[in-house]
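queue> pop job 88
queue> type: inverse folding (structure -> sequence)
queue> payload:
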């Protein structure tokens, strides 16, 4: 069961890490400019970010195993479509449809584990899922870089076919079906459509620098909020945002993940285009980030349970910002040890001490019955933050659509400064909004988070 859920969610995580490494190769092969590469990243994030909550809701209504299998098949079909893309437009559309599949399969993977294991075994199972998913994500840049250099960037998408086939086979044979409490209102299709349309218009206006399109996109997103407020049983209860900590923690999430998405987009381009790194070397260059995330995140989460999330959520983004400022030194002629490594170490350490306390702060801010949707909102905020950062950062950095290596080099330093400011702002928001939690509170919230994926225990808690 754990193997099925790790493979299922891991395919989506793997895809996200590999595509950044492949961007220069895609640009060369398909003749894509900076705008085209932005769309390769953001088209996936538009559908994934907008449909995550709907995907979780469909799993609760119609069966999490069923949605996991449907999502895997859908994701695989459009992975093949990405792999055979003859031009940039075809690849962008395929990536958007690939994101729909990811939105169906990602929310159910952890819910399946939580619903299928006894309470005493659930913590170990979730820990195994997290660790293995992290390993799957970690190998992405290396495996992808090797495939890109040895054969073609197209293989990073075609590789999903055998992985998904194994995941589907294990899921059908070994994963029991589970559902949440059924809603009499059914899936919220109009909300999902308005959220997707708003994000798509906003991304289009920002990437294409057509502000007259971006503004209506923002208005459509406002319509989504209005629909949520008026609908009985909304996907996102508006009352959640009355919590200062919940709103503040999600603002911190937005800032940190916007900085992360924007920085990774440009660091990989800078390494390959201006420093001459191969795809494999560019992936390996960021290895310290992965190692630190795997080694430190769990310890940071345990520390946050003892001292509360405010301090790590304040210091972590500031360390991330420092690492981003150091990335400015990544210029032609710079050595890895003197420029890339120090920046990657600080960047990775800052992320490692931020992410787990951030999740804990979000969950500690809501009632037991809303833990699932709170986690979904936080995940969606992170995806949308990356989308907006990739869309708007080239404009702020002064990088044109057909950027030359010299223009990219000049704009790269400015982009890192912008990312550093955004990350640091996230730390300031956390300091102002996140309350300290006692060890008892943190432990109870962690237990409730895992147990409330089981609707029977949630119902008992609510009662």
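queue> result:
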């Amino acid at each position: 069961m754990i193997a099925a859920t790790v493979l299922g969610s891991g395919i989506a995580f793997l895809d996200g890490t590999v595509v950044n490494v492949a961007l220069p190769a895609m640009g060369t092969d398909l003749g894509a400019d900076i705008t085209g590469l932005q769309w390769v990243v953001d088209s996936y994030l538009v559908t994934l970010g907008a449909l995550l909550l709907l995907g979780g809701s469909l799993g609760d209504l119609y069966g999490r195993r069923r949605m996991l299998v449907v999502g895997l098949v859908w994701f695989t079909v459009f992975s093949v479509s990405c792999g055979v893309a003859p031009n940039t437009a075809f690849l962008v559309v395929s990536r958007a449809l690939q994101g729909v599949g990811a939105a169906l399969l990602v929310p159910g993977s952890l819910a399946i584990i939580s619903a299928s294991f006894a309470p005493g075994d659930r913590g170990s199972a979730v820990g195994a899922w997290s660790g293995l998913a992290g390993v799957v994500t970690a190998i992405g840049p290396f495996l992808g870089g090797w495939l890109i250099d040895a054969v073609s960037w197209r293989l990073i998408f075609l590789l999903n076919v055998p992985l998904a086939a194994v995941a589907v086979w294990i899921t059908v044979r070994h994963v029991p079906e589970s559902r949440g409490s059924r809603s009499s209102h059914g899936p919220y299709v109009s909300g999902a459509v308005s959220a997707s349309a708003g994000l798509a218009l906003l991304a289009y206006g920002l990437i294409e620098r057509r502000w007259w399109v971006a503004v209506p996109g923002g208005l459509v997103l406002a319509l989504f909020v209005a629909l949520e407020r008026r609908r009985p049983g909304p996907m996102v209860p508006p009352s959640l945002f009355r919590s200062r900590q919940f709103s503040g923690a999600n603002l911190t999430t937005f800032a940190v993940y916007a900085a992360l998405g924007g920085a990774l987009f440009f660091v990989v381009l800078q390494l390959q285009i201006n420093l001459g790194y191969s795809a494999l070397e560019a992936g390996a260059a960021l290895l310290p980030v992965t190692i630190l995330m795997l080694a430190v995140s769990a310890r940071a989460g345990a520390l946050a349970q003892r001292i509360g999330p405010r301090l790590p959520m304040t210091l972590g983004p500031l360390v991330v910002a420092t690492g981003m400022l150091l990335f400015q030194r990544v210029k032609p002629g710079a050595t890895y040890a003197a420029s890339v490594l120090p920046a990657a170490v600080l960047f990775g350490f800052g992320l490692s001490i931020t992410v787990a306390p951030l999740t804990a702060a979000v969950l500690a801010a809501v009632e037991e019955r809303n833990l699932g949707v709170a986690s979904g909102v936080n995940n969606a905020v992170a995806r949308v933050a990356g989308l907006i950062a990739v869309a708007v950062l080239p404009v702020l950095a002064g990088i044109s659509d057909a950027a030359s290596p010299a223009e990219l080099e000049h704009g790269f330093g400015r982009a890192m400064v912008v990312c550093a400011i955004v990350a640091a702002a996230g730390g300031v928001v956390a300091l102002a909004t996140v309350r300290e939690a006692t060890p008892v509170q943190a432990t109870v919230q962690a237990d409730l988070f895992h147990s409330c994926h089981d609707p029977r225990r949630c119902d008992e808690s609510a009662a």
